[in-house]
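Appendix B. Worked example

We walk through a single record from start to finish. Start with the input: the chain for Dihydrolipoamide acetyltransferase component of pyruvate dehydrogenase complex, Kineococcus endophyticus, length 421.
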Amino acid sequence: MNQRFALPDVGEGLTEAEIVSWKVKPGDTVAVNDVLVEIETAKSLVELPSPWAGTIAELLAAEGDTVEVGADIVVVRDGSSVPAEPAPEPGPAAENGSGATLVGYGTKESAPRRRRGTPAPAPAASAPAVPAEAHVLAKPPVRKLARDLGVDLAAATPTGPGGTVSRADVLALVPAPPAEPERRFVDHERERHVPIRGVRKATAAAMVESAFSAPHVTVFTTVDATRTMKLVQRLKTDPEYAGIRVSPLLLVAKALLVAAKRNPDINATWDEANQVIVVKNYVNLGIAVATPRGLLVPNVKDADDMSLKELAVHLGELAATAREGKAKPRDLAEGTITITNVGTFGIDTGTPILNPGEAAILAVGKISQRPWVHKGRIKPRYLAQLSLSFDHRMLDGESGSRALADIAAVLEDPARALTWS
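Next comes the structure step. The output line below is what the pipeline stores for this chain.
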């Protein structure tokens, strides 16, 4: 018996994923929970385990393909399945689901569903008449595709397993589109075409949404971070911080946390549906990280409750995990305020775009020695430029400026982190 494994909803509310790499090939023997494939969603890389033991009969998608949730991606032959789900009660909910059960995978519980290929129970004699397509066997994604394309499922010739209508059966009823105009010649030695997908596609959509839905305002200041740089050097030689990466970003993060406590409006969310501003009493601190997959913004949960040492550990672990492509969906969700460190690239300053829903984002430029008037004399000091972009619906110029001034004050004199906490 062949079992067809469909791409599941991995619990992120996404509709598609890219096949990154197959961990099996036709002819391989697999056991329950063996990893079949690694996929990339718009948020993270995810490994999918096998719900059956058996032999890989066929791979239905190639590496690099983008596949919709619910589409079959692999066939397992003579598979012995995990314990079956209880038989569902007759009703519409029995058709909900992809037909594949994930083992040991953290997805949300779905409504009870009918076994693949089992005909729907006949309606009671007193039941009202229903459209002919309601009696057609088809998975929810196929039904949605038919609705979107205006195709009558009852007119399709089912070729799927158990007499079900497949995507191909639906698409076969769609008239061929008119011929496209001839494409221009592309010299691939002079141009490089990069597919817009995965993290890049999600980032583009999020930035467009943020830029055109939230009125951005950015304020700037230059800070004398000489004392901060001295403290960084002391922490690097402190036995308590042995083996922990200490950088100026750690103290910038601490300064932002102190400022958020004194100016809670910068740690808020705009709730359009309920027409309220939700001010958070906790800080999930996001750090923008450049990775081979694109820009990711993992966040440290409850960063405001951590000591400086705990914050250093979590920042280091989170950045490393993101760069290795192992950030989990939870790491990337529920951020409340963000730092982007453009100084890493030798840049002085910038006007960052807000993460959708957040009230503020802080950009930190490079920290370098420059002439500065200190105690009435021109001296070489470590200077940095800070810029704070904020949503003008939630913050006005005064509150945004006060928050940035507090961040600068802590970096000029880190002892304020103690007196203001």
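Two observations about the output. The first strand starts at residue 2 and ends at 6. The chain has a mean pLDDT of 81.
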